[in-house]
Amino acid sequence: MPRIRNKDRASAYRERLRNVGLRHTLPRERILSFLDRKNVHPTPEELYQGLRKKGYAIGLSTVYLNLQVLRDVGLIYEFKDPKGVTRYDGYSKPHHHLACRSCGRVEDVLASELPEFLEPVIPEVEAKSNWEVDSARVTFLGYCPRCKRSR
Amino acid sequence: MPRIRNKDRASAYRERLRNVGLRHTLPRERILSFLDRKNVHPTPEELYQGLRKKGYAIGLSTVYLNLQVLRDVGLIYEFKDPKGVTRYDGYSKPHHHLACRSCGRVEDVLASELPEFLEPVIPEVEAKSNWEVDSARVTFLGYCPRCKRSR
DNA sequence: TGGAAAATGCCAAGAATTCGCAATAAGGAT
DNA sequence: ATCCTTATTGCGAATTCTTGGCATTTTCCA
User: Fold this and answer.
1) Which is it for strands A95-100 and B132-143: parallel, antiparallel or unpaired?
2) How far is the CA of B150 from the C1' of C24 (A)?
3) N or C end of chain B: smaller count of CB under 10 Å?
4) How many A×B Cβ pairs under 8 Å?
5) Mean per-residue pLDDT for A57-63?
6) Per-residue pLDDT, B7
7) Domains defined for chain B, CATH in brackets
8) Residue A143 contacts by C-beta under 8 Å, 6 or more apart in sequence?
9) What does each C-alpha distance from B38 to A141, B68, B90 come to in angstroms?
10) Under 8 Å CB-to-CB from B66, ≥6 apart: which residues?
11) How far is residue B148's CA from residue B151's CA, in Å, rounded to a whole number?
12) Minimal C-alpha gap between B4 and chain A (Å)
């Protein structure tokens, strides 16, 4: 497994931010970095606490502000889990969500592990609706392994 | 177009509610009825005002409570629009969402107008993940006809 | 039809999110 | 490398959104 230096990581985020017209800042890099893992979907408070636990000082209002800004430019995704809790997702590999109706858990499914079922329908949707579509996300609703047993 | 009597409507809702173990009440029927239309995705406040405008007295906390209850049993769907506003969807025909990154608008796309692209992948997802999936919703992200022009 | 259990709705309480603003940091220009 | 303009941060207050307590009303089945 190739080692990635901090500088490389930083410049990768710097570029992603510049591409969407945002400045690179430490809080932003840390938020993006925190979110860019599989199955990580924190609430704003959880993200805030998570960063502090890593020893990073950051303000809660900065967290809120940046979650908004990063969502607006499409770098992260905001959603409600099945219990109605607001969560954020910044995992950069294309993926979908499994959401458990019973316990509320949300798990990622990599798009690369599934056939390409979405790509062909996007042009159809565009044609039918006259919208311009640049991405699509699926939420699969049901029961996780633990909850499906106890029913 | 066949005429549907109020009694029939009421008993249809009564049955849907009983199927999920909930009592039939007037507030519930009115909420379900309000939401069961294409392209209707109100916030709790909008739903509350909408019902009052129809002349129905209802409490705001009753609206909140029932949105939760109905979501928990799967009769309605709760989501965030691209601007981060919490909205509800109770349209009973299977459909997906188009969401505009620019203005935040959300529009429904009937599943019946698209090929059956989801059904085949659900068993695959179940196999890969070991979850039990009972439904899937797609959010297509992009730009609506109005916003795509001005870019 | 009686009555236990569930639901409603008012208002207060509590959370979550945003705002105002002074201080700081970023990054293009010099 | 340093300056200078502008964006960003982060604190605490203000606001908005959502839930809780509880007396009253409804539901529905025995």
Assistant:
1) unpaired
2) 36
3) N
4) 129
5) 98
6) 59
7) 1-92 (1.10.10.10), 93-151 (3.30.1490.190)
8) A100, A101, A102, A151, B131, B132, B134
9) 21, 21, 9
10) B27, B28, B31
11) 6
12) 30
Query: CA B49 to CA B14: how far, in whole Å?
Result: 24
Residue of A nearest to B77 (CA): A82
Q: How far apart are CA B145 and CA A130, in angstroms?
A: 6
**Which nucleotide is closest, CA of B17 to its C1'?**
D27
**A55 to A48, A49, A58, B37, B48: CA distances (angstroms):** 11, 10, 9, 49, 44
Q: CA-nearest residue of chain B to A106?
A: B131
Please give the Cα distance from B97 to A136 (Å, whole number).
10
Place of tokens 């916030």: B43
Contact criterion met (CB < 8 Å) for B135 and A141: yes
Q: What is the pLDDT of residue B45?
A: 98
Which pLDDT band, with edges at 50, 70 and 90, does B4 fall under? Answer: low
Please give the full DSSP string across A107-143, using - where no structure is assigned.
EEEEGGGS---STTHHHHHHHHH--EEEEEEEEEEEE
- Among B114, B129, B132, whose Cβ lies nearest the Cβ of A109? B129
pLDDT the model gives residue A150: 81
What's the pLDDT tens digit per position in B10-63? 689 999 999 999 999 999 999 999 999 999 999 999 999 999 999 999 999 999
CB-based contacts of A11, cutoff 8 Å, min separation 6 = none
Tell me if A30 sits within 8 A of A58, measured CB to CB. yes
Of A22, A65, A28, the C-alpha closest to A44 is A65
